[in-house]
Amino acid sequence: MLYYFLYPLAKYHTIFNVFQYISFRTIYAAITALLLSFLLGPYLINKLRVLKFGEVVRTDGPATHFSKAGTPTMGGAIILLIVTVTVLIWGNLTNYYVWVVTFVTVGMGLIGFIDDYIKVVKKDKRGLRGRVKFTAQVGVALAAALFLYFNNFETLVTIPFFKEVQIDMKAFYVPFAVLVIVGASNAVNLTDGLDGLAIGPMTIAAATYMLLAYLVGHVKIANYLHIMYVPRAGELTVFAGAMVGASLGFLWFNTYPAQVFMGDVGSLSLGGALGTLAIITKNEVLLILIGGIFVVEALSVIFQVGSFKLTGKRVFAMAPIHHHYEIKGWPEPKIIVRFWIISIILALLAISTLKIR
Ligand code: 57M
């Protein structure tokens, strides 16, 4: 919005020129989202408490979690609100990529909100039925993928570390994009089981895509680095910046011992946003590395369930894998911080693919 109203004033005073720069708007988007989190966080968390939106903790999990019962949940609604408001303030709203990623973020958030509402307010532990939830997620992702496809979005997929390997998926790009978006959304949801465990790696992943969006959207840098140039994708730097600010702001309250949980409204929407950023920045496959923690968490569930069905034996003491370490006796903060460290290493490795190819 500021871009729309203030940049035209550059003809009266050059100071207004700064509003055209993605770098300037990204930095201030991150700061705005962070400040909004600090200002609104305590008030909104209290509101969740007053509304009795408290977590119902399962009794078959690690015993250390029983004391977390009643922690306000659905705090993801705060993240969603702050990201959207920040993007409306600092984004160039004439850029349709901004709307695509906002659509997925809010759409997935709504699905998560309904799920949380049924669990927390209606006190139905099962929440939204699995099939309904999955179909709705696919619907949101499919709408975004079809929109991109019919707007001549590049269907060529590059493989990290292998410059020469490029696969043109043509129409198969649509189901592929749906898989990336829905997969990311659910993987983040599975990871969200310890204080700060999902939001830490989310901040790191969003920061990585912030950098990538800037690079792929800048014709000179993209040519210099020999990476795919994606016209107009640079504007997503601002969106990712808002995500970084809002995620860091949420971490302030969600860090151990958490004052609030994000709920499905947070995990599904942030995961969906991450998947969409991966698609539009044309770094789809690299998401496996950037979101490595989310991938490992999801794989641990797949292996656990698969192994139990096939052999009757468990691979882990409990899946997702963070529960395995809890049962092995690792203190919760140790698991969380170690997963953050791994996330940072993975992000650095991902950035190194700009040169190692
Ligand atoms: C949601 N939700 C947390 C909170 C958060 C197929 C199966 C592996 C699915 C999986 C599952 O249901 N995962 C999705 C995980 C829950 O957190 C809430 O949910 C929101 C995210 N959707 O924002 O509102 C609990 O996690 C803890 N938590 C924190 N800090 C946070 O910041 O401590 C969350 C956020 C909270 C709190 O205790 O109540 C969850 O774990 O339920 N299921 C599981 O993860 C279960 N695993 C399992 O059944 N494993 C089996 C098989 C099926 C693979 C096995 O290994 O044999 C475990 N979950 C729990 N207890 N809680 C089992 C035991």
Helix content: 55-70%
What fraction of residues sit in β-strands?
Answer: under 5%
Strand numbers in spatial order across the main sheet: 1-2
- Overall mean pLDDT stands at 95
State the distance separating the first and last CA atoms.
39 Å
The general outline is globular
The major pleated sheet works out as: 2 strands, antiparallel
Number of strands: 2
Write the layout of secondary structure elements.
Elements: H1 2-6, H2 22-50, H3 76-90, H4 96-120, H5 130-150, E1 156-159, E2 162-168, H6 173-191, H7 199-216, H8 219-225, H9 236-254, H10 263-280, H11 287-290, H12 292-311, H13 321-327, H14 332-352
Antiparallel strand pairs: 1-2
Helix pairs in contact: 2-3, 2-9, 3-4, 3-9, 3-10, 4-5, 4-10, 5-6, 6-10, 6-12, 7-9, 7-10, 7-14
The protein binds Muraymycin D2 (57M).
Structure summarized in a few sentences:
With 357 residues, the chain is mostly helical. It has helices spanning 2-6, 22-50, 76-90, 96-120, 130-150, 173-191, 199-216, 219-225, 236-254, 263-280, 287-290, 292-311, 321-327, 332-352, and strands spanning 156-159, 162-168. Bound molecules: Muraymycin D2 (57M).
